[in-house]
Write a structure and sequence with these properties.
Largest sheet: 5 strands, antiparallel
Number of helices: 4
Distance between the termini: 59 Å
CATH superfamily of the largest domain: RimP-like superfamily, N-terminal
Number of domains: 2
CATH topology of the largest domain: GMP Synthetase, Chain A, domain 3
Structural class: alpha+beta
Helix content: 25-40%
Shape: elongated
Strand order of the largest sheet: 7-6-5-4-8
Order of helices and strands: HHEEHEHEEEEE
CATH class of the largest domain: Alpha Beta
Number of strands: 8
CATH architecture of the largest domain: 2-Layer Sandwich
Radius of gyration: 21 Å
């Protein structure tokens, strides 16, 4: 009969997501050594945890593997998901993910960025500085002899997101 089937177990896990995320963050915290810091965590209804970490001096794959294995073991031992129906990915955010933390802005000073304002407009430039309230980017306007270097302060309150650009 239609409509009499029970909810899939993945639906129930969605309802417990906030507490699951908090539990995983608590387990993760002691594993972050040296300059490694937490950026974000995402969980899919299939109990697939994606954890994004970063480090001031760069985050190598070896460190990600070590943290992944240790965290996975703790989650299994706690029986967070008794049937073992979860997966775990630990990585750096990658270029497709926007900067989320002040510490990430500091790490990327000197790199080309694309800032998207709340209204959707964008500005590209080199990230020159970042403080608690705003960032400063520099960009060139005009060409040849008429080119001028512009310095622009952008308050965080006006930024929707910022992405690091790779230029070849």
């Amino acid at each position: 009969m239609k409509g009499t089937e029970s909810f899939p177990s993945s639906f129930l896990s969605i309802m417990s997501t906030p507490s699951s995320i908090e539990t995983v963050k608590q387990l993760l915290e002691p594993l972050l050594e040296g300059d490694i810091f937490f950026v974000d965590i995402k969980i899919k209804p299939t109990n697939n945890f994606k954890i994004y970490l970063d480090a001031d001096a760069g985050l190598g794959i070896e460190k990600c593997i070590k943290i992944n294995r240790a965290l996975y073991k703790q989650m299994e031992e706690m029986a967070l998901y008794p049937d073992g129906d979860f997966s775990l990915e630990v990585s750096s955010p990658g270029l497709e993910e926007p900067l989320k933390l002040h510490r990430q802005y500091l790490k990327n000073i000197g790199r080309s960025v694309e800032v998207t304002y709340l209204d959707g407009t964008q500005k590209e430039g080199v990230l020159m500085k970042a403080d608690e309230n705003e960032i400063n980017i520099e960009y060139t306007e005009g060409k040849g002899k008429k080119a001028t270097l512009i310095s622009l302060n952008i308050p965080f309150a006006e930024i929707k997101h910022t992405k690091v650009l790779i230029k070849f």
